[in-house]
Design goal:
This protein is an alpha+beta fold. The protein has two domains: 43-415, no CATH class; 431-566, no CATH class. Helix content is 56%, strand content 7%. The chain has helices spanning 5-32, 44-53, 56-68, 76-120, 123-134, 145-150, 152-166, 170-180, 204-229, 233-236, 240-271, 275-293, 303-311, 321-338, 364-384, 388-430, 464-467, 563-566, and strands at residues 439-442, 468-469, 479-483, 498-500, 505-506, 513-515, 520-526, 529-532, 537-539, 542-544, 558-559. The chain has a five-stranded mixed sheet, with helices on one face. The longest helix has 45 residues, at 76-120.
């Protein structure tokens, strides 16, 4: 008789590969289905063009200097990853190549998380937890290139550190964890709870947690001193009450929001129901129901016996072993979830839309574990009640709607890119006479925005010089500023100039300035399109003359990197 081991190993390997493909498919559908119509947003527009235009030697030299001088808020690896991966992705396949690399990093993290759950729990926990991880929607920025290429590698490092720790390669795990502090640091504190994943809990766990905490505390202290020495603003500027109160507040608010959004996002998907989401429900529901139905969740007793055991408080019974294991793991997940927020000083922890949802970035590990425990509990109770089909359909519907919400996010990314293209295509038609030092102000009602990603906001003044290559000797290339509501009441100065600052524009502080009104072009909204104001403008009872139109020169300049991506040239007859 042939031994069964080779066949068993082959089946296990096949099942694992099959689920890896399933993970990749879920992520693709929920976040990357419309990859062909995604673009560049906010930070992407200044970082990525610079990275792509460098050759390999220039790129390596730039990254070396970036790391040595601890640029990027003293966490140089985050931006370095963006430069490296965007450069490589563009070489492989242009903008979509960069998105493909972001997708692969996200998928790798999903697989690493699945393997982690396999080490600490059963298949039910691993499958439901991985689905919760891949469809985590408290953070809606996973597809944003600056985040997928710059932040997601920090989660990769965290998950690798966890696997090394559980494999008893402790010092190597600490080295990997230390690297997180030089990348995007919020996942680092989640690593504090990793010893709690070791089972069973024994007396030596207390000693291990103490040593673990001391080692990580020394790392944090060293990094804090290093950042203080190099003058990293967000460390040097922290006041005493804020440095203590903000982390505690966020550790309370953040978990409530990130877990609550697991329930709110399906409702948002239903509210935004369209053809894509409907097809996702029709196709995804039976597929996910089949996947979940294959999970083995056996009730060790019947409901009546279980109730008797609870009434008699016989909690030492073997019937409670699975339940106690789930409760213990849920506690670990909640601990990891709270520890995802101590470093989120600069963003509100209750953000549920837009780029600010990156505050929940590191919460995905703990939140997914808690969600997996909840799903396992639902299946446990469904089996206990002999209602497994109902439990299966309930969870399948939950994950299907989370997947459907992914199309809501993708739609905003599509629209934001479209709005940028429409905006810049209009601007270049309206300001053909730009000169050095010219400022183009755009009245705020002339913009269209999306909920989940910014379109034409604070980075706007840095874009024009990447659409056209203006002469190198121009110290002040033309810049476009987005005015804020109520700008008319604050923009004028006693000298008769315009003041561009935090109360009048949305722009980086380094680009605030005062400008002679004769150097200003004002674009206003008219019938759904931008129009250039030619008449003087009256503000605070005083009339100000704006730049008069002059000979067009814009088409004389060489087209820049962003021209072909942002400028839509009208076809004849349009």
């Amino acid at each position: 008789m042939q031994p069964k081991y080779p066949t068993t190993l082959f089946v296990k390997t096949l099942n694992k590969i099959w689920f890896f493909v399933f993970i990749a498919l879920v992520i693709w559908i929920a976040r990357y289905w419309h990859i062909g119509s995604f673009g560049l947003y906010v930070d992407d527009l200044t970082i990525i063009p610079r990275a792509v235009e460098m050759n390999a030697t220039e790129l390596l030299k730039y990254i070396y200097g970036y790391i040595v001088h601890l640029y990027g808020h003293a966490r140089p690896l985050s931006d370095s990853f963006i430069y490296i991966f965007s450069h490589l992705g563009w070489k492989l396949g242009g903008m979509q190549g960069a998105y493909w690399l972001g997708y692969l990093i996200f998928t790798l993290n999903g697989i690493l998380f699945y393997l982690l759950l396999k080490r600490i729990g059963n298949q039910t926990l691993a499958v439901t937890g991985t689905l919760a991880y891949c469809l985590f929607s408290a953070d809606t920025t996973q597809v944003f290139l600056t985040h997928s290429l710059g932040l997601q590698p920090s989660l990769t490092l965290l998950l690798l550190a966890c696997h090394l720790y559980l494999s008893d390669k402790r010092w190597l795990s600490y080295l990997v964890a230390l690297i997180i502090l030089f990348s995007y640091e919020t996942p680092f504190t989640v690593f504090i709870a990793f010893p709690l994943l070791i089972k069973p809990w024994q007396k030596r766990l207390v000693k291990e947690m103490v040593w673990h905490g001391l080692i990580l505390g020394c790392m944090l202290g060293g990094i804090f001193l290093l950042r203080s020495v190099v003058g990293e603003g967000r460390v040097a500027g922290l006041g005493f009450p804020q440095v203590l109160l903000t982390p505690v507040t966020h550790m309370i608010q953040g978990p409530v929001v990130s877990l609550g959004l697991y329930l709110y996002r399906p409702l948002q998907a239903l509210k935004a129901l369209n053809g894509e989401i409907l097809i996702t429900i029709i196709v995804g529901l039976p597929v996910l129901a089949w996947v979940i139905s294959r999970l083995k969740v056996e009730a060790t007793t019947d409901l009546s016996t279980f109730i008797v055991l609870i009434k008699d408080r016989v909690f030492s019974s073997p019937h409670f072993n699975d339940l106690k294991a789930l409760l213990r793991l849920a506690f670990v997940g909640l601990t990891m979830l709270a520890l995802a927020y101590p470093f989120t000083f600069t963003i509100r922890a209750y953000a549920i839309s837009g780029r600010d949802t990156r505050v929940h970035f590191a919460a995905v590990v703990g939140a997914s574990i808690v969600c997996a425990c909840g799903c396992s509990m639902i299946l446990f109770m469904a089996n206990l009640l002999r209602k497994k089909v109902i439990g299966t359909i309930l969870l399948a519907g939950f994950f299907t709607l989370l997947m459907g919400y992914g199309f809501v996010i993708q739609r905003d990314y599509q629209l934001a890119w479209k709005y940028q293209q429409e905006f810049w295509s209009e601007v270049v038609q309206l300001v053909p006479d730009v000169e050095e030092g010219i400022v183009i102000l755009v009245e705020p009602s002339g913009f269209r925005d999306t909920r989940q990603i910014d379109a034409n906001t604070w980075n706007l003044p840095r874009i024009f010089e990447q659409i056209y290559n203006f002469p190198a000797e121009w110290k002040n290339p033309p810049r476009v500023y987005r005015l804020v509501p109520g700008w008319q009441n604050h923009i004028t100065t006693s000298e008769g100039t315009f003041r561009l600052d935090v109360v009048t524009t949305t722009a980086p502080p380094s680009l605030y300035q005062t400008i002679e009104t004769s150097r200003v072009i004002l674009l206003e909204s008219g019938k759904g399109h931008l129009v250039r104001r030619s008449a003087p403008i009256t503000l605070n009872g005083k009339e100000f003359a704006l730049k008069a139109p002059s000979a067009p020169v814009l088409n004389l300049f060489e087209k820049g990197f962003l021209f072909n991506f942002l400028i839509q040239i009208p076809q004849k007859g349009e």
